[in-house]
Amino acid sequence: MFPVASLVFFTYLAVAHGQQVGTLTAESHPALTVEECTASGCTASELSVVLDANWRWLHSTSGS
Fold first, then answer.
1. Is 8 helix (H, G, I), strand (E, B) or coil?
2. How far is CA 41 from CA 6, 10, 30, 36, 44, in A?
3. Is 4 exposed, middle or buried (0-12, 13-18, 19+ CB in 10 A)?
4. Please, are residues 33 and 43 in contact by the beta-carbon 8 Å criterion?
5. Which tens digits make up the pLDDT trace of 6-51?
């Protein structure tokens, strides 16, 4: 049982080590203009959009 448990532990450790914060590109939130309309007219609001994690660049920790 010990070899299986240690294999699982080291597998999770390797996966956790690979999950590091990216530093190459600053995160930016694209601007989006949204209009809310009522019976008296429309008003525009400038909001920002946050993209899902799968749209972000993957990169190495060596800086390239």
1. helix
2. 65, 61, 26, 8, 10
3. exposed
4. no
5. 888 888 877 776 666 666 666 778 899 999 999 999 999 999 887 7
Global pTM? 0.38
Q: What are the structure tokens assigned to 15, written together?
A: 């996966």
pLDDT, residue 7, reads: 84
- 10-46 burial, b if ≥16 CB within 10 A, otherwise e? eeeeeeeeeeeeeeeeeeeeeeeeeeeeeeeeeeeee
Q: Is the pLDDT of residue 64 over 60?
A: no
Can you tell me the distance from the alpha carbon of 56 to that of 19, in angstroms, rounded to the nearest whole number? 14
